[in-house]
Each structure stands twice: as structure tokens, then as C-alpha cells.
Design goal:
There is one protein chain. The chain starts with a helix and ends in a 23-residue tail after the last helix. Helix content is 41%, strand content 11%. By secondary structure, the protein is an alpha/beta fold. The chain has helices spanning 2-12, 33-42, 54-71, 87-95, 126-141, 159-173, 181-186, and strands at 18-19, 77-79, 100-103, 106-109, 112-114, 117-120, 147-150. The strands form two sheets. It has a five-stranded mixed sheet. Strands 6-7 form a two-stranded parallel sheet. It contains seven helices and seven strands; from the N terminus they run αβααβαββββαβαα. Helix 4 links the parallel strand 2 (77-79) and strand 3 (100-103).
Length: 209
């Protein structure tokens, strides 16, 4: 109940809720060197939908959607764990009725791919933290462009990553305006966008006036 109240409070303040898989754990084993690189070297086994066939993807989305429904919440968009999906999973997600789908290369919205620049952090090891911190500083120093900033709870547990997040936020806020997904995609404040009210439906398309 406390978590649900917290999420509802975020929605009331203008946050956009997204479905982010169900378990964050990949099933199966990679069969090619490319799959191994994405599954193990990049996602560390967290690319839940990377190896999913259609039936598995549908089951995982249904399970996650049931959790949202029981909580009385709805998800405007979908962001796959580690931004990775198989072709079958991507097809299932697109059929599910989400207002937008975020992938590594940008946000899919109304047949467009937006906000292609991505800044994320890895904090599982000191080396990963140093590399992603350097990448974040480089991205934040580039010419201004629509940018997605991805943070995970564990990123806040490592002091060096926390410092990098602070520096990156400072650099971005000096030149860019922070927005929720809905504000960015619709170009309007949440209060002026249809469909912001809480619905029992699990997946709510983003509808802009």
C-alpha cells in the first residue's frame, strides 16, 4: 500500500508511469556471440525480453499488467529492461496499446523516433561506474539536444556514481528543461493533456490535445 500511494503521488505530481518488464531477469541462454555480448556483457542477465518468443513475451506483459491493474494504476509507455527486446517481444509490445515505447535508440511515438540521445549509468563495478560516468560527462557537454536520463536505484548506492549524476544533472539543467514523458511527447503540461487521470485499464495511450 505504501508503494502504491507513493506511485499515485508521483502521478499526481506529473510523473508518467511505464511498464518495465516483469522480473528484470532474462530467461534462456544466448545462442550467438552478438546475443552473448548484449545479454551478458551489457545487460548482465537483466535483459528480460531479449530472448523471449511471442508466447513468453505475452505472458510476461500479462503478469506485469495484472500487477498494475490490481494496484489501480495504468502505464502510459513501455521501457524494456536494458532496452533490449527480441523481434517477437517488440511485436507483442507494439500490439499491446502503449502510448509510446522507449528503446535504446529513442522513444517510439506516432511513427517517430524521438530523444535519441541517452545518458545512463552502470554501477555494478567500479570499472563500469567509471566508464559510464565518463560517457555521461561527455554526453552532457555536447551541443544541447533532447536527452533521456536513465537512473536505477542501485546507482545511488555508489558514491562515485552519485557524484557523476550530480554533475551530469547540473550540466543538463543549465541548458535543457526537464520534462516527463507526457510533457515531452505532447508538448504541453500534464494538466492540459487528455488521459492523465488514473484509469483501471493497464495500458493507457498518450492522447494529446
Amino acid at each position: 500500500p505504501a508503494t502504491i500511494r507513493w506511485l499515485r503521488g508521483l502521478v499526481d505530481e506529473g510523473a508518467t508511469l511505464c511498464l518495465h518488464g516483469c522480473t528484470h531477469v532474462m530467461a534462456g541462454r544466448p545462442r550467438t556471440p552478438v546475443q552473448w555480448a548484449w545479454a551478458r556483457a551489457f545487460a548482465r542477465g537483466q535483459g528480460e525480453l531479449l530472448l523471449s518468443d511471442e508466447a513468453d513475451a505475452r505472458r510476461r506483459l500479462a503478469s506485469a499488467g495484472e500487477i498494475f491493474t490490481r494496484a489501480g494504476l495504468s502505464a502510459d509507455g513501455f521501457v524494456a529492461p536494458a532496452w533490449l527486446m527480441s523481434a517477437a517481444a517488440r511485436s507483442v509490445v507494439r500490439e499491446a496499446g502503449f502510448g509510446f515505447v522507449e528503446q535504446m535508440g529513442g522513444i517510439e511515438f506516432e511513427a517517430r523516433l524521438l530523444a535519441r540521445r541517452l545518458i545512463g549509468f552502470g554501477s555494478l563495478t567500479a570499472v563500469e561506474a567509471a566508464l559510464t560516468g565518463a560517457h555521461a560527462r561527455w554526453q552532457a557537454a555536447r551541443a544541447p539536444a533532447d536527452t533521456r536520463l536513465a537512473l536505477h536505484p542501485q546507482d545511488l548506492a555508489r558514491a562515485s556514481t552519485l557524484r557523476d549524476i550530480d554533475r551530469t544533472l547540473g550540466a543538463l539543467l543549465a541548458r535543457l528543461v526537464p520534462k516527463s514523458y507526457r510533457e515531452f511527447l505532447c508538448g504541453a503540461a500534464p494538466a492540459k493533456v487528455a488521459g492523465t487521470e488514473m484509469k483501471p485499464a493497464t495500458f493507457a495511450p498518450v492522447t494529446c490535445r
